[in-house]
Give the backbone structure.
Amino acid sequence: MPARPDPAQLAAWRLLLEVHATTTELLERELVAERGLPLSRYDVLLNLAEAPEGRLRMQELSASVLLSKSGLSRLVDRMVEAGLVRRERCQDDRRGWFAVLTDQGRSALRRAAPVHLRGIQEHFARHLEPVEVEVLTAAFSRVMAAARVAVGDGPAAGW
Amino acid sequence: MPARPDPAQLAAWRLLLEVHATTTELLERELVAERGLPLSRYDVLLNLAEAPEGRLRMQELSASVLLSKSGLSRLVDRMVEAGLVRRERCQDDRRGWFAVLTDQGRSALRRAAPVHLRGIQEHFARHLEPVEVEVLTAAFSRVMAAARVAVGDGPAAGW
């Protein structure tokens, strides 16, 4: 195995970073303009909504969000202040607590979702042929399978 | 054009976010462990090194970095304190200033690059077949071409 990527691989990696930075910036801009909701808050709301009873331990939430792993605690604090999330103490672990989706949080997510999905379609999905979606999914699934092993090797095994 | 992505497209989008979050986390972890350099600093050093005379206006730097667009000003402040970057006033614009790569910054980049490139190979490139690299590059180039138009439509036209 060569120790470094060839120019085509490196160009693909840079493009991935560019696509990520640019599309998330566009999605953020539209979501803030139309719903007053930053993308990092959308990410938290979505992950809570997909969890049983709309609640996750902070550690679980940190493992599932994709945009604000660092600074998550402060982000959730601000969402509590905004009424989108509330805290609930763990019954079986006095030191731990859950982040729980409020009705207001669920409503904010419901209003934001069409704007967000339209943005994904407009800025990402519509530019890809079905076969490209298949190739990307297969390749990235392999990358993720290896990453889960690599992550498990390191200090952040919970993530 | 449908207003939302189909399930396969949405899964591909989520995978892109996951691959980005996970691989950058792995690259960050290795670069910090082996060279004491956060990935955001590497990103700044690399962009300055690729610029003429190793210097960029803050606005140009903000347009070129891919990881720390928000918080860039504080990041550069800390890199100035660490001796990796210095400030230089623009001669033709009294209010503006350049971020300039120092010898120490260039040396830090040179020592970090092999670790970073090895990580891209290990965690991303080696999992992709050459044809997948081609497909990804073609598809993402189209996404970026459209994004540049979309970004130009909005308030952040300089970016």
Q: What stands out?
A: Chain B is about 65% helix and 10% strand. The two ends of chain B are 28 Å apart (CA to CA). Confidence is low (pLDDT under 50) at residues 155-159 of chain B.
